[in-house]
Amino acid sequence: MRGRAAVRVALLTVLTAAVLTGCSGSAERSAGPPATTSPSRAVWQPRPGLAWQWQLDGRVDASADVPVYDIDGFENSAADVARLHRAGKKVICYVNVGAWEDFRPDRDAFPHAVLGEPNGWAGERWLDIRRLTVLRPIMERRFDMCRAKGFDAVEPDLVEGYGNDTGFPLTARDQLRYNRMIAAIAHERGLSVGLKNDLPQIPQLVDHFDFAVNEECAQYDECGELSPFIAAGKAVFHVEYTEPRSRFCAESRRLKLSSMLKEPELGAWRRPC
């Protein structure tokens, strides 16, 4: 999310242990019937080291000379995606899957019962990700939108609610179940999908996701935890907000991360490694 540090957790080791030993308090244990949508194209597999642009503030500025763009799925049109494709770019669709946003056109599709605590961003509230049968069709429609606009991949945001004060007793197991469902929804539509942050669950999720998106792993000395993606030949798209490039770019190059410095608003400005 824009400025992920706002909801970072301190007890990552505890959460990792919860993946292995925690019991689920899930309100719903089934993701519902499998979707009937069939992929119409091969899933794109971004390789480690690909340069990228990440712009979530408004319509895309296509001036960055990079092969990958990650842009807001609602705020950009099929024509915007087609323009990037004509320039030889791959395009990732940013979609929030872990929080309700009062400024999205489908805001009324979310029942009040699944809305939790504010997450620190104006107009946003955490979702009860245990409610799979409620949330799955909403997320399917959002991913349908990404596919219809021609996107190549999806960046699902806020997939680590279990480590935050959501207003719901979410467990690591609940999060694994939800994240795997999100990955399946993308793949059913022929879209590749990235794991956003959620470092403690990388060992359990790396086989389900096609790349990773990370914020501030250098600031928190966590970049090595993303190595399973690189070892699997999958890109890690990484940004820092406050660390100077002199402090993280050498390590990023060693780890084969796709790293750059961005402002937290995620406009067009970028300073790559």
TrEMBL record:
Region (Disordered) residue ranges read 24-43
Q: What is this protein called?
A: Endo alpha-1,4 polygalactosaminidase
Signal peptide from the UniProt entry: 1-26
Keywords from UniProt, A to Z, are: Signal
Q: Which organism is it from?
A: Streptomyces iakyrus
Limits of the Glycoside-hydrolase family GH114 TIM-barrel domain: 52-268
Its taxonomic placement starts with: Bacteria, Bacillati, Actinomycetota, Actinomycetes, Kitasatosporales
Q: Report the superkingdom from the record.
A: Bacteria
- PROSITE patterns for the chain: PROKAR_LIPOPROTEIN
Q: Which PANTHER family match?
A: ALPHA-1,4 POLYGALACTOSAMINIDASE, PUTATIVE (AFU_ORTHOLOGUE AFUA_3G07890)-RELATED, ALPHA-GALACTOSIDASE
